[in-house]
Amino acid sequence: MGHEYTNTRIHEYTNTRIHEYTNARMEVLWALFVDTFDEIVTWRYDYPCRPQHGGTLSELSPGERKWTLGLFVLAGLLGVAYVAWLASGQPADEPTPEGTAVVPSATARPSRTPRPTSTPRPTRPPPVSPSPSPTAGPQRVGIVAGHWQSDSGAICPDGLQEVTINLDIASRVVAILQTQGYDAQLLAEFSDRLEGYKADAFVSIHTDSCDVPEASGFKVARVAASAIPTEEDRLVSCLIREYGRATGLRFHENSITFDMTDYHAFREIDPATPGAIVELGFMAADRQLLTERSDLVAQGIAQGILCFLTGR
Questions:
Q1: Local structure of 184: helix, strand or coil
Q2: What pLDDT is recorded for position 5?
Q3: Residues paired with 142 in a beta bridge
Q4: What percent of the chain has pLDDT over 70?
Q5: What is the CA radius of gyration of the chain?
Q6: Phi, psi of 182 (to 5 degrees)
Q7: How far apart (Å, rounded) are the C-alpha atoms in residues 189 and 163?
Q8: pLDDT at 93 over 80
Q9: Is 248:242 a contact under the CB 8 Å cutoff?
Q10: Is pLDDT above 90 for 136?
């Protein structure tokens, strides 16, 4: 649009100049033609040697006839030149200094020079960062409350039942681990979930009977035929150290029974799940600790599990 407008204005300006120039040339030639014709008329009527009666051209002398014919010829040539010039329709080109552009009239609007379009460059694809590996969820810990939802377990003469102590301690351990961000789960003795159960640690909580009133202390064991003996030995060691430190009870190493090393849940859970069984103490001699300091007992079990999970 800008280029069309500029060309139109330049064309109009050029035509105006041509018309002005043409009119000036016409005036000059016309004045020359009039002067010549006037000269002829003046000579014809005012020349000192012309006949006074104003006769025809044949009445002139030979010199006068030549002069008169010459003037008429000159006037005719000027007329022919004038007609030929008009037929051309254009004056001679006016030279312009090299590099000088024709300036349009002041009313012409300046055109905007279009910006050259740059060749688009191919863009580099953004660097692809490797997808982060899925964030592992919280570690899972299975805690079995011995005899819960199955039977009462051992019963003391005064009616204290083993399952009551087991459920209380197991529930507290689960709560402690959950507050630490672990996926701790409370399981019943013969829960259907035990079949193929997978976890980072598995602990079943039990309590010894009142049959030997003076007996005191705790026990920890793993399955005899372990598929992962190194891991399960480390879990057992952590439980022994942390529980003994928290409760002050001594470890009964030589009183581990077959029922502990062949505990039924060990045969049900996934073989790759590290497992252990704990006898918290004796319901007679250690009753006060087990029933009145249950928070301390639960802390000892929880710290033993954390020792294993964190590799302390």
A1: strand
A2: 47
A3: 185, 202
A4: 58
A5: 64
A6: -95, 155
A7: 10
A8: no
A9: no
A10: no
Place of tokens 């000579």: 43
Backbone angles phi, psi at 164, to 5 degrees: -65, -45
Picking from 217, 213, 166, the residue whose alpha carbon sits closest to that of residue 188 is 166
Sign of CA dihedral 206, 149, 268, 242: negative
pLDDT digits (tens, 9 = 90+) for 187-209: 999 999 999 999 999 999 999 99
Pairing of strands 219-221, 275-282: antiparallel
Q: How far apart are CA 282 and CA 214, in angstroms?
A: 9
Q: Which residues contact 168 (CB under 8 A, 6 or more apart)?
A: 294
User: Rounded distance, CA 119 to CA 312, Å?
Assistant: 64
- In tens, the pLDDT along 250-271 reads 999 999 999 999 999 999 999 9
CA distances (Å), origin 57, targets 36, 60, 63, 168, 289: 18, 5, 11, 159, 167
Which residue has tokens 């920890």? 220
> Which tokens go with 272?
């790759």
Q: Give CA separation, 246 vs 145, 172, 206, 292, in Å.
A: 20, 15, 17, 14
Confidence of residue 22 (pLDDT cuts 50, 70, 90): low
| Residue 273, pLDDT score | 98
**What is the per-residue pLDDT for 163?**
98
User: Contact, 195 vs 268, CB < 8 A?
Assistant: yes
pLDDT band for position 58 (cuts 50, 70, 90):
low
| Alpha-carbon gap, residue 20 to 73, rounded angstroms | 30
Query: What global pTM score does this model have?
Result: 0.59
Give Cα separations from 58 to 36, 55, 64 (angstroms): 22, 8, 10
Residues found in the chain: 312
Residue 222 token pair: 């793993």
Q: d(Cα 259, Cα 87) in Å, to the nearest integer?
A: 134
CB of 145 closer than 8 Å to CB of 171: yes
